[in-house]
Amino acid sequence: MSRSAARRIPEPDFRALFESAPGLYLVLTPDLTIVAVSDAYLGATMTRRDAILGRGLFEVFPDNPDDPAATGVANLRASLGRVLAHRQPDAMAVQKYDIRRPESEGGGFEERHWSPVNSPVLDAQGRVIYIIHRVEDVTEFVRLKRHGSEQDRLAAELQSRAVRMEAEIYHRAQEIQEANRELRRLKDELEDRVRARTADLERTLQALRHSEDQLRQAQKLEAVGRLAGGIAHDFNNLLTAMLGYASLVRARLKPGDPSLRDIEEILAAAERAARLTRQLLAFSRQQVLEPKVLDLNAVITDLGRMLQRLIGEDIDLVTAPAPGLGPVKADPGQLEQVLMNLAVNARDAMPGGGKLTIETADVDLDEGFARERVDLKPGRYVMLAVSDTGCGMSASVRARMFEPFFTTKERGQGTGLGLSTVHGIVKQSEGHIEVYSELGHGATFKIYLPRAEEPLGALEAPDPVVPGARPLEGSETILLVEDEEVIRRVLRTSLELHGYTVIEAGDGSEAIASCERREQPLDLLVTDVVMPLMNGPDLALRVAAIRPDLPVLFMSGYTDRALIHQGLRRSGTAFLQKPFTPEALASKIREVLDEPRSQAA
Predict the structure, then answer these.
(1) How is residue 33 annotated by DSSP?
(2) Which helix (H) or strand (E) holds 319?
(3) In CATH, which of 1.10.287.130, 1.10.1370.30, 3.40.50.720, 3.30.70.260 is domain 199-283?
(4) C-alpha angle 80-527-429 in degrees, rounded to nearest 5
(5) Confidence grade of residue 574 (pLDDT, cut at 50, 70, 90)
(6) pTM of the entire structure?
């Protein structure tokens, strides 16, 4: 035998290795067909390899028909959908998913509980080619939790496994905990060094503790913001349907009909709810901004008279604008909202009158200043300071003042969204906000916005949609893509009442199929932004390859920042924020259709 032959290592049989792996694994294609399974998985699910390979996942493992509350199929399908849509692993909470017994063992279903993780396998182009479905059978763990202590022997056998499983479940659930553990580890190391070093190192440790508190607060606000944004998105969808159907009923009623007053009350209530969701979106940094390069001094000057009326005559309004102030890039309407919310907050802190001071300045923030603030980078900024001589705030109030719905006012006197809205707008504008306040000594809010490099007036936003400003009727054909059926129905009805021909699609695949029918005339694509499997911007790119001259109008209850600023804003495509009335939609559609195709496309 030659020396080279002796060194040759046989190629391992990877399928045999996979099938004999101790874990419970299933390999799926993107259409959820089972193509590989481990022996451990077969044993746990009482199935045979030749009986399940090549079959659909939910054909082999359906919900228990005897359990009307079963959600295993729906939850697993949703998780797999997220993996396909985002190409990222998706860890699920513990699921009740009953398993069918073989007929040889009596048939029927056996109650089981699982802890699943679904992970994508991507090809060189980043497409999902397989999904690895890994589960842990936690049935005994769940039964132990449900029934309390059982016999000592069973408890002893399950103790180590239960502890390990519980630690893994809770470890997956929160990435924030990992960051906090790392910070605590670093803090402990620094505390050990402080014992042998000078007082200067003690100040360094104090700075680290301060940064940790800031990080915890930022993570907490981020988590609450994601929750608030999701709630606002779902609520905006409901409000769109409510506004739509109420407007349709109002259009059918004759003048003088007694029901008109009730419909107007419904519409007014829906508009108030829409304002509330806009505040939630502002806090969660998921609203659509229309930025332009502007002079902050000019914004304050233009708003001065309104601010004085807002705070009342017993409060002295003083402005101190810095001469030659640098420009900032922000949404002027949102900056006005910031100023008004801070003015209202100051007014409520000075019930007996006082002084409100608004000042601006150009500042250069160095590394030392930025290092003490977890979300701030060094550089050139424009500072906006709003100070009052009111009652001030305690440390406990300062720690929670930016949380949504937190308020120190009596019930019914405030929503608790004013300062959280300010926080969201500043963060979405890539700025920083901090507060200096003590009880009995007033408060100062300092906002730092990055200096803009562009000249004043750049990034001008398009005019807002004003229903009635242009004709609403048309005869064009519109492809309407919306995954929420109730919204799709009301939008179709309202558009058909305005003379349009509407082709519906519940998802991106249906929309693409309609576009590929060349005999079908299409004049406009109207699509939701956030949809399962294929989002609106991706759909627009696919449609542009088929019909390059077809203009697009996006609509959404909320929009992910990266999706908006890297996709919609870059392409210049029209956008309509939910909730909206049928008249606002018809007006925006008319605006897009009446533009030259080179701009609308």
Answers:
(1) B
(2) strand 315-320
(3) 1.10.287.130
(4) 85
(5) confident
(6) 0.41
